[in-house]
């Protein structure tokens, strides 16, 4: 298995001097752009924004003064408020006129353009950004894959997945046509520098000598990550603007392979060129988590072990691998969902107040959380795997019925875990995580269970277990985004019956706008150089450090997962795990499911 | 027993002295016997009868509120098995005439209409009428005889509801207590505001009542305390972990208690003109809610424990100062061809009346929990809307990371908890939330609990709850005399000053949002009224 994860094209263990040379050569390539011209463009860019984005107005990229590449990188389209402008631009007159129509060129290359993710998520997200005028004036999208295809064929392929926002359908067709005209295709091998050089030529043609920024989206299997990065960075980096690469999970399968991947990527890229996407961080309600915590007085005082009894992070899918288990079987649910998506949400949830909303400040706090956590122990985990199930005459396959999955696979399709953060704020508070496939419902949510009221005057209205009537804060990430706070309330009427009612904010009812897909936000952030929602390498290391011992133990001891019927609520082991820590799963309590 | 949880089961009688006559020692009724065996009264609920006498049965309140509330209790099986309702008034009327009159105002709950007319008939059969003078012991003795007939030898418990003008309170109480008290059960008297018009007259009334009744026979009703959401206030505070930590000057910037009516006196200003809005609404309803809101956690939910805490709040408050009060009076206003009358256009109001129909006040509780937190109280007639609500404005987030999203005034974007008492009961918490979409725009959204959406049951009228509590001897929602004294002590100096100095109210158009003076008063304490903001 390990060989599969030798990421570097050269032998992963022996590091030849030549590869070092190669690297230095590379970085000098990256640094061709003289500082002055760069900074001036960034100014012009500020002025030329098509539409000012009311974002955090971070100075994230320019906040990296020490790194040579970050200069290059700093042309991010984040609109700095005028008084926030760095003084560097004044050294030189602007090379680009300040007229409205000229701006840096943006080339987005989707490597693996014929894949599922590209078709279902990336192209539609790009179109949505275009549709809402978030993309720079001059942009092109290049699909890159091995398949032979013409531009026309690519356009034809993606046009089927583009949709307009439900709430604003005007000009939809029109906009689609214009978007598709900006889409091109280049066929090539993933490990061919020559083919990437051809791509580079095409890109240069389109860029027509303008300052150009290039974004590569690697929508390809992990074993060719490094090859592509090598070829792209050597042959198709921007010579005048920034070059950034978006990579998606899996980032290795344990500490070692992840460290190896990072090391290999860094042969060709600097850390701030690498945008490790975790699309859960782009979800609306995950974004809102910090807003809730830090812009409302009523929540922050409660946000600690003094008031919070436990936190639950729940992810469930109502379908199995459905014939696509090949990739999954090698990873399992813990690596696929828990170690990244859920852990990231946990870190955001539990972090201390950052100094500012800048990416580095937030990620610093997240790393601190991860590093304060105890690595997972086998006894803190319950794993499961779905088995076949017949319901209403229909039968649902077992995980091992999937032809792409070995018949004796022990890979968990369900896992529940109890995690602890050993810091002053969270000592002793169990964070329960649960993720599973082929469950009865599709859902992702964060549940915060508060402690019971000490010395509750209404004790007798609650029966014997006060913990069953505590306040809960629920953030439902999907589907049907909502925030609600369960409170005890008097049932109207004579007498004094109490029940739990919700203080409710259902997004659908409050906000008529369609909620953008996570990929839209993340792509936009990558274009703008906003790194807040991307994973830094030290975060990744810390995350793996928590899970690697457990994952190894599971595999070495060949722990047999508890089987649960397809479409059920998961293995009961999850309840016993929760019970051990005095927790009840909030999503299976009856009143909510 | 006292716990509200039990209220529906209508447990009667605690060990209270059955009635005052014991002390007076004037009467030869064998009171000492019952006094020796009070336990006997408690034993068998089934063998006891409750007689409810509505004194002033032909009046408006009786027709609109008391009889319908009694019927609703009957309809929901909340009344004891043996009960009779007696109307008492000066008008000559037969039982049938009373029933006819009462039947016009009875309604069934909207959500369960079955057997409605049947139940109505059964209820009406239990209603009787006795005509008599309010100051005639003889007439009350006749009533007593009739009551005894109905009680048929059972232990008799008697509840008198005084739905009469205050000037005849004492006469009626005297006659009822001397001639129509229960011989072997309890006798209780419900009285409604006004309880005097200042400290002295209130004390005089209390003193006079206590000649004939013990404190625990007197049930001073404040029907606002029977409102569903006022009842819920304590539940919210004390059964939810998330609110209590926030319930102090550390997190709460100000509290607003708002009452408005969208109509004027409409030809019934005679009584009102003598009292004014401060006595009519503020000194009782709003102050009571304030005390419930601000009190410390009581030892238990027992009436005495709760009322002890409420008195402490009232006694920690600074008496109102003239400069912390704004008074107003509505003037006529023409809108869309319709002319709305001024207060002084009311024929029952003197032309030169200075009686306030609107008042706003800033009050302060000088204790550890609330020091420096302004409680703003506002009440008015003939305003643009009908509403009663409690608004809690929280402080702004210290060191808010999202400062730039909020503009210059951080206090404009603070959390706010709103408890809407009427109409359309609701609780909502305004929170800052990210507007979904790319970019980072924040807005204030509500975490919402809308009663109509959540609870399909009709919410009972405040009078139902209070009548039931009086029958059950639950005093939690009734005003104790020391509470009343403390409440008057806060308002009496101000009321005197207003009258002595003949302070002229600020005029506001009928149907408007009230005098702008209320805004300046709020501004002085760094408060913005939450009910007239743009986002309402």
From TrEMBL, chain A:
One of its GO terms (molecular function) is NADP binding. InterPro entries: G6P_DH, G6P_DH_AS, G6P_DH_C, G6P_DH_NAD-bd. Residues 83-93 have a biased composition (Basic and acidic residues). It holds the Pfam family G6PD_N. Its EC number is 1.1.1.49. One of its GO terms (biological process) is glucose metabolic process. Keywords: Carbohydrate metabolism, Glucose metabolism, NADP, Oxidoreductase. It comes from the Eukaryota. Pathway: Carbohydrate degradation; pentose phosphate pathway; D-ribulose 5-phosphate from D-glucose 6-phosphate (oxidative stage): step 1/3. It catalyses: D-glucose 6-phosphate + NADP(+) = 6-phospho-D-glucono-1,5-lactone + NADPH + H(+). Residues 110-288 form the Glucose-6-phosphate dehydrogenase NAD-binding domain. The keyword Cytoplasm does not apply. Residues 291-585 form the Glucose-6-phosphate dehydrogenase C-terminal domain. Residues 9-20 have a biased composition (Low complexity). One of its GO terms (cellular component) is chloroplast stroma. HAMAP family: G6PD. Catalyzes the rate-limiting step of the oxidative pentose-phosphate pathway, which represents a route for the dissimilation of carbohydrates besides glycolysis. PANTHER family: GLUCOSE-6-PHOSPHATE 1-DEHYDROGENASE 1, CHLOROPLASTIC, GLUCOSE-6-PHOSPHATE 1-DEHYDROGENASE G6PD. Belongs to the glucose-6-phosphate dehydrogenase family. This is Glucose-6-phosphate 1-dehydrogenase.
From TrEMBL, chain B:
InterPro entries: G6P_DH (IPR001282), G6P_DH_AS (IPR019796), G6P_DH_C (IPR022675), G6P_DH_NAD-bd (IPR022674). It is an enzyme of class 1 (oxidoreductase). It catalyses: D-glucose 6-phosphate + NADP(+) = 6-phospho-D-glucono-1,5-lactone + NADPH + H(+). GO terms for biological process: glucose metabolic process; pentose-phosphate shunt, oxidative branch. Keywords: Carbohydrate metabolism, Glucose metabolism, NADP, Oxidoreductase. Pathway: Carbohydrate degradation; pentose phosphate pathway; D-ribulose 5-phosphate from D-glucose 6-phosphate (oxidative stage): step 1/3. Transmembrane segments: none annotated. Residues 54-232 form the Glucose-6-phosphate dehydrogenase NAD-binding domain. One of its GO terms (molecular function) is NADP binding. Residues 235-529 form the Glucose-6-phosphate dehydrogenase C-terminal domain. GO terms for cellular component: chloroplast stroma. Its EC number is 1.1.1.49. Belongs to the glucose-6-phosphate dehydrogenase family. Catalyzes the rate-limiting step of the oxidative pentose-phosphate pathway, which represents a route for the dissimilation of carbohydrates besides glycolysis. This is Glucose-6-phosphate 1-dehydrogenase. It comes from Carya illinoinensis (Pecan).
């Amino acid at each position: 298995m390990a060989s599969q994860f030798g990421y570097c094209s050269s032998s992963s263990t022996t590091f030849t001097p030549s590869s070092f040379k190669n690297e230095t050569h590379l970085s000098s390539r990256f640094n061709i752009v003289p500082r002055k011209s760069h900074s001036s463009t960034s100014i012009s860019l500020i002025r030329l924004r098509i539409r000012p984005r009311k974002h955090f107005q971070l100075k994230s990229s320019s906040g990296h003064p020490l790194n040579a590449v970050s200069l290059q990188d700093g042309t991010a389209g984040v609109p700095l408020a005028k008084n926030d402008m760095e003084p560097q631009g004044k050294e030189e007159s602007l090379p680009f006129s300040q007229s409205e129509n000229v701006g840096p060129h943006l080339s987005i290359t989707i490597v693996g353009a014929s894949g599922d993710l590209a078709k279902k998520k990336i192209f539609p997200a790009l179109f949505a950004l275009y549709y809402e005028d978030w993309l720079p004036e001059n942009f092109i999208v290049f699909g890159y894959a091995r398949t032979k295809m013409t531009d026309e064929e690519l356009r034809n392929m993606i046009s089927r997945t583009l949709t307009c926002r439900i709430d604003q359908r005007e000009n939809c067709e029109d906009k689609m046509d214009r978007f598709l005209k900006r889409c091109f295709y280049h066929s090539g091998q993933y490990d061919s520098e020559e083919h990437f050089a051809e791509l580079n030529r095409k890109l240069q043609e389109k860029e027509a000598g303008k300052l150009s920024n290039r974004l590569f989206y690697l929508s390809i299997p992990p074993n060719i990550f490094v090859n592509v990065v090598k070829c792209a960075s050597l042959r198709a980096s921007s010579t005048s603007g920034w070059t950034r690469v978006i990579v998606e999970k899996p980032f290795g399968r344990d500490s070692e392979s992840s460290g190896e991947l990072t090391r290999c990527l860094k042969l060709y890229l600097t850390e701030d060129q690498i945008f490790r996407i975790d699309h859960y961080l782009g979800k609306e309600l995950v974004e809102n988590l910090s807003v809730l915590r830090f812009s409302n007085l009523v929540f922050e005082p409660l946000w600690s072990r003094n008031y919070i009894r436990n936190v639950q992070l729940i992810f469930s899918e109502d379908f199995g691998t459905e014939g696509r288990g090949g990739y999954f079987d090698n990873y399992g649910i813990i690596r696929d969902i828990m170690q990244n998506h859920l852990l990231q949400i946990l870190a955001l949830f539990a972090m201390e107040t950052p100094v500012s909303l800048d990416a580095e400040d937030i990620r610093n706090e997240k790393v601190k959380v991860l590093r304060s956590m105890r690595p997972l122990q086998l006894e803190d985990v319950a794993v499961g795997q779905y088995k076949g199930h017949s319901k209403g005459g229909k039968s649902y396959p077992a995980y091992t019925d999937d032809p792409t999955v070995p018949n004796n696979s022990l890979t968990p399709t369900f896992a529940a875990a109890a995690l602890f953060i050993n810091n002053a704020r969270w000592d002793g508070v169990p964070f329960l995580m649960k993720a599973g496939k082929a469950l009865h419902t599709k859902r992702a949510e964060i549940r915060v269970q508060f402690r019971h009221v000490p010395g509750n005057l209404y004790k007798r209205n609650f029966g014997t277990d006060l913990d069953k009537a505590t306040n809960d804060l629920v953030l439902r990430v999907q589907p049907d985004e909502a925030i609600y706070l369960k409170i005890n309330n008097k049932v109207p009427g004579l007498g004094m019956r109490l029940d739990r009612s919700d203080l409710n904010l259902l997004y659908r009812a409050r906000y008529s706008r369609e909620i953008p897909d996570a990929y839209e936000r993340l792509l936009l952030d990558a274009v703008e150089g906003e790194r807040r929602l991307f994973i830094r390498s030290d975060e990744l290391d810390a995350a793996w450090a928590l899970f690697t011992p457990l994952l190894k133990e599971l595999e070495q001891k060949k722990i047999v997962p508890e089987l649960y019927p397809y479409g059920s609520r998961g293995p009961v082991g999850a309840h016993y795990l929760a019970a051990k820590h005095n927790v009840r799963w909030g999503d299976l309590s009856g009143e909510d499911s | 027993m006292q716990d509200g949880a039990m209220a529906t089961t209508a447990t009667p009688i605690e060990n209270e002295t059955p009635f005052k006559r014991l002390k007076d020692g004037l009467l030869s009724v064998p009171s000492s016997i019952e006094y020796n065996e009070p336990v006997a009264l408690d034993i068998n609920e089934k063998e006891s009868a409750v007689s409810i006498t509505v004194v002033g049965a032909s009046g408006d309140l009786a027709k609109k509120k008391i009889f319908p509330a009694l019927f609703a209790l009957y309809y929901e099986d909340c009344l004891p098995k043996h009960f009779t309702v007696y109307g008492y008034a000066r008008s000559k009327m037969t039982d049938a005439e009373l029933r006819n009159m009462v039947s016009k105002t009875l309604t069934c709950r909207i959500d369960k209409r079955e057997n409605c007319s049947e139940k109505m008939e059964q209820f009406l059969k239990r209603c009787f009428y006795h005509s008599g003078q309010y100051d005639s012991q003889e007439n009350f003795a006749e009533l007593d005889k009739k009551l005894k007939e109905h009680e048929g030898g059972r232990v008799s418990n008697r509840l008198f509801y005084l739905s009469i003008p205050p000037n005849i309170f004492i006469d009626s109480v005297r006659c009822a207590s001397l001639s129509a008290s229960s011989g072997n059960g309890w006798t209780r008297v419900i009285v409604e505001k006004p309880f005097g018009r200042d400290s002295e007259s209130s004390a005089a009334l209390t003193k006079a009542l206590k000649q004939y009744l013990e404190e625990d026979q007197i049930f001073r009703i404040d029907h606002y305390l029977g409102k569903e959401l006022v009842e819920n206030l304590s539940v919210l505070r004390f059964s939810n972990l998330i609110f209590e930590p926030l319930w102090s000057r550390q997190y709460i910037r100000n509290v607003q208690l708002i009452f408005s009516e969208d109509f004027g006196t409409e030809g019934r200003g005679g009584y009102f003109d003598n009292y004014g809005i401060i006595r009519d609404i503020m000194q009782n309803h709003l102050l009571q809610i304030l005390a419930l809101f601000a009190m410390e956690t009581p030892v238990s939910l027992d009436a005495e424990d709760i009322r002890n805490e409420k008195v402490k709040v009232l006694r920690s408050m600074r008496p109102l100062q003239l400069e912390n009060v704004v008074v107003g009076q509505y003037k006529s206003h023409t809108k869309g061809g319709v002319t709305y009358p001024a207060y002084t256009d009311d024929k029952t109001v003197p032309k030169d009346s200075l009686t306030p129909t609107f008042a706003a006040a800033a009050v302060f509780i000088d204790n550890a929990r609330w020091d420096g937190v302004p409680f703003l109280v506002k009440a008015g007639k003939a305003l643009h809307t009908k509403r009663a609500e409690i608004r809690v404005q929280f402080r702004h987030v210290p060191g808010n990371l999202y400062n730039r999203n909020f503009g210059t005034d951080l206090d404009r974007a603070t959390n706010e908890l709103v408890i809407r008492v009427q109409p359309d009961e609701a609780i909502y918490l305004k929170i800052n939330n990210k507007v979904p979409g790319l970019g980072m725009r924040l807005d204030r959204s509500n975490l919402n609990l809308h009663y109509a959406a959540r609870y399909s049951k009709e919410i009972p009228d405040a009078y139902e709850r209070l009548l039931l509590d009086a029958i059950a001897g639950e005093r939690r929602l009734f005003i104790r005399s020391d509470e009343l004294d403390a409440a008057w002590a806060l308002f009496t100096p101000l009321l005197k000053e207003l009258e002595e100095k003949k302070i002229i109210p600020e005029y506001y158009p009928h149907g408007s949002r009230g005098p702008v003076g209320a805004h300046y008063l709020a501004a002085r304490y760094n408060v913005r009224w939450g009910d007239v903001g743009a986002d309402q």
